[in-house]
């Protein structure tokens, strides 16, 4: 019996050495979780069970468990390297074979799919054609590396403040006085405003009070400058003159001089300085109210490019404006006693762009940045967790697969529930503590030597018995 006891001790000590050696070998493996050899004593039983004075029969290896405590997070220079700070595993797929890992070595393959260093595809929530995340639908994550197509401007949102202390221009006042000098025009203030239309000249800053410009885009991504000139035409009344590229947005002909005849709009403000009305103004000075107040649509804009050989100095650039026009929203604009200022401006058009970089936030959302200043959501990384992580089956390559003991995976986005946060441009180091493992190595070696001594002693006793005569 002592031989068997000693042999079981040798086998257990060997297993302990192997486990410790494997830990030491993987001290530099990202995402590795150290293992621990767990032993139990053995007692032989008779038909009637074991007595209270039973002598043990040795030791056995009861389990090799892995310790899933957090490893140190080490920053890298690769933005697609990912580390999990907290609970959870990355979910990867190898042609449908799902595995889980804490090693965040990720990059892209030739088709743009995010893969780890073994070519397994990272799983997450993809986006639809409009860039909306498809939550709940797990797919292979793919980075769109192609150039971003241009988009024509469809909306322009703008808020500004017009200085209420500005005076009505002399030209407007003169036109107003001349108009009222005709008795039939008495009380027709709109007609007086029309009389002042001819005084506006974008090249002469004395003919307007304030101006601002912003870029808008045609269907081919060409930028065009939309300029707005504001002329105070009366108490709480302003005329806004709109030009695109210094020419009339509605100029129908490019073969003849188009001039700089602007589109005109009348802005009205209430006593508290809030925008209260908006009307279009035709060449005869007739105003047509626009609803909703503060929002109008630029229709019929004909994008053009400078052309010295053309009579008008312009020629068709081959593109067009958005088919539905450009919706300009001025709601929220004010007329207060302060300097003219554009408080906010945004438009949804852009030129073509190349992929400039990727960013992944701590919730796993992948942002692509383009050279045209745009950004686009490319997907969201998911994490999986298990009720019993000790029940996961290790399959090598720093990966585990689900087992009956682990239970079903609980899938979610980083920082949701008990799942940890992601850190981009970083890797989780192995959680092996080398000093502890070296001590364990010495202990395992001593155990092996001691069990070998047990066998040696049993052999000497047996030889003594054999030598009896």
Task: Walk me through this protein's architecture.
This protein is of the alpha+beta class. The protein has 3 domains: 2-69 and 430-466, no CATH class; 73-148 and 355-428, no CATH class; 155-347, Sandwich (Tick-borne Encephalitis virus Glycoprotein, domain 1), CATH 2.60.98. Helices cover 16% and strands 38% of the residues. The protein contains 4 helices and 32 strands. Strands 5, 6, 9, 10, 24, 25, 26, 27, 28, 29 and 30 form an 11-stranded antiparallel beta sheet that branches. It is rod-shaped and about 150 Å long. Mean pLDDT is 88; it is low at 191-198. It is found in: Bacterial flagellum basal body.
Question: What is the architecture of the largest domain at the second tier of CATH?
Answer: Sandwich
Unreliable parts: 191-198
Distance from first to last alpha carbon = 24 Å
Give the helix level as a range of percent.
Answer: 10-25%
The CATH homologous superfamily name of the largest domain equals Flagellar hook protein FlgE
How many strands, which pairing sense, and closed or not: the largest β-sheet? 11 strands, antiparallel
Q: What multimeric state do the chains show?
A: single chain
Q: Output the CATH topology of the largest domain.
A: Tick-borne Encephalitis virus Glycoprotein, domain 1
Strand content: 35-45%
Mean pLDDT: 88
